[in-house]
Write a structure and sequence with these properties.
261 residues, alpha+beta, Umud Fragment, subunit A, 5 helices, 31% helix, globular
Length: 261
């Protein structure tokens, strides 16, 4: 499924590459027709003509290879990229070791949206999290329930789990997804996971990467700075995210997840 999706995203670039190859072949043929020596019936001239033909064949093959390689490199840089997720912070949506397909083009044309799963680079590493809030939004977590601008993100219990990891369904930003989270009845069991902010702390740049601290507001929510997003892992009980290191600069986000395998 992942490979099929990646192939679909790469199809326009593949067609472009084929067109470029065909154009290159036409140019080579035209150049050869103008620059190549006329056919001579003598054995010497015939041998020279054959050598010239072989030379042009190799040049054409090199041109085709260069165009094809350039197309693949451009596609990887601009359109799509594939990653293997090394942690379980996005479970149950993305399990540890699963491969994700990242669309790099869409978010070059628009800003991230609430509920969207995005990839970003921080401190030289690649991360994947879900966007919960945008710049200017007021965020809080109370007894495991997330609220944005005073509205609690809709959530319902799907299956109780061992310890604190219960399976829930959330609806946010027009998207429906599953998360592992706390039971609201277990208030205070793990304050650092159940509640945000804690003691007025809206998240710090704990790793020195340059994340931005949201502003603690009078209503005990955290207001996101300009040009940032607030992100969380779907595994709410085991994810280092904006609850810990603050708001994420939008400039660090390079793509959205469109496939998981």
């Amino acid at each position: 499924m992942t490979l099929a999706l990646a192939a679909c995203l790469l199809t326009p670039f593949a067609l472009y590459g084929l067109a470029a190859v065909r154009l290159g072949a036409v140019v080579v043929a035209a150049w050869r027709g103008r620059a190549g020596p006329p056919f001579d019936s003598s054995s010497l001239a015939h041998g020279l003509a054959e050598d010239e033909r072989r030379s042009w064949r190799w040049r054409a093959m090199l041109l085709v290879g260069a165009v094809g390689l350039g197309t693949l490199v451009a596609a990887r840089l601009v359109v799509v990229e594939v990653f293997r997720v090394p942690t379980e912070s996005m479970a149950p949506t993305i399990a540890k070791g699963e491969v994700i397909v990242v669309d790099k083009l869409t978010l070059a044309l628009r800003a991230p949206e609430r509920g969207e799963v995005v990839c970003f680079r921080m401190g030289g590493k690649t991360y994947v999290k879900r966007v919960i809030a945008l710049a200017g939004d007021r965020v809080a977590v109370r007894d495991g329930l997330v609220s944005v601008n005073g509205e609690v993100v809709a959530r319902r219990l799907l299956a109780p789990g061992a310890a604190h990891a219960h399976l829930y369904e959330e609806r946010h930003g027009g998207r429906v997804y599953r998360v592992l989270g706390e039971d609201p009845a277990m208030t205070g069991a793990l304050d650092v996971l159940d509640n945000y902010p804690v003691a007025g702390n809206c998240g710090l740049d704990r790793y020195g990467y340059g994340t931005l601290p949201p502003t603690f507001a009078a209503d005990s929510t955290c207001v996101m700075p300009p040009d940032t997003v607030f992100v969380m892992g779907d595994n709410r009980v085991n994810s280092a995210d904006s609850r810990y290191w603050g708001a994420l600069p939008v400039a660090w986000v390079f793509g959205r997840v469109v496939g998981v395998d």
